[in-house]
Amino acid sequence: MTDDPRSELQSLRERIDRCDRELLRLLAERARVALEIGHIKQAHGLPIYDPERERSVLDALAALNDGPLSDQAVRLIFQQVIRACRNLEQPPRIAFLGPCNTFSHQAVLDYFGPEVELAPQAEFADVAEAVARGEVEAGVLPVENALEGFIGTTFDLVVEHELQVVGEVIVPVELYLLSNVENLEDVRVVYSHAQPLRQARQWLRAHLNGVPLVTVESTAAAAERAASEQGAAAIAGPLVVAAARLPVLAGPVEDRADNRTRFWVVGREPAGQGDKTALMLVLPHEPGSLARALQVFAEYELNLTQIDSRPARSRPWEYRFFVEMQGNAQGERESAALQALQQSGVHARILGVFSAAAGVGDDV
What we know:
With 364 residues, the protein is α/β, with parallel strands linked by helices.
């Protein structure tokens, strides 16, 4: 150890740089091997995605792990590596709420990377149906917004179509005002989707008070309207900003810088691996049933990260409960808790086991 911390820090960063270069070389070698595997699979009509093989690879790597990274961190890292290599073999077809250049599109890119075949859909239900019919490998649907809360429609569609939650991704909500005009005083109308208009209402009240706000079907459509009308502006996210023929007049304009939307990645088959479980609970229609169900989670020391209720469509005035908990439903404590719930008269259905979305990384 030296007396100069800057010199020691520089030396350690050089070691990290050498590690990163070696990692990059090995990743490229792995990708080339994956491409060869993909060619063999395609030549013999074999499926590109082999979930059992992926699970066995992740299990083996976790067993070899000696730290300091946790087993879950190792799984998350290699899940991304495996996914990127699989996308090289055959880009997956992914359904999402269209059109392109929306936050749903951004969620697809953030989770799967750019090597995907996009399948934009007109409605949330169309996304779920495309997954259920096998027309796409997976779908991406919003399930929660930091400001507006739980998006129950997504939960209903997953239950109705018997889909599995296989992953999640969190997209920051960044909004910008686009227009051909040069000054805010020249804006005569603002177009956007209903949700961005709500998420920027305070900024709009402070800077464009009295200017008409017009709801359109998407932020991409809003940018098209603003580009074609004198004095018009649009509120949209980064993908629209990059694609539109409009300069940014102001931004960011969202009311909260920490606003984010969480998306579920849904498929037909369970992922199996992960540190988070989504559940549907159907409780006996009697006093105290919810309290007793929650007590089971407490007794097994399981942390619930979300709980919401939705009307049971087939039984008026009765409700299904959506629960997310930390932990894998196949774990010892988790499976024991689910068994205890069933024995108490609660119907518990696993909607998916998946890896929690990664947070903001540390500076290295």
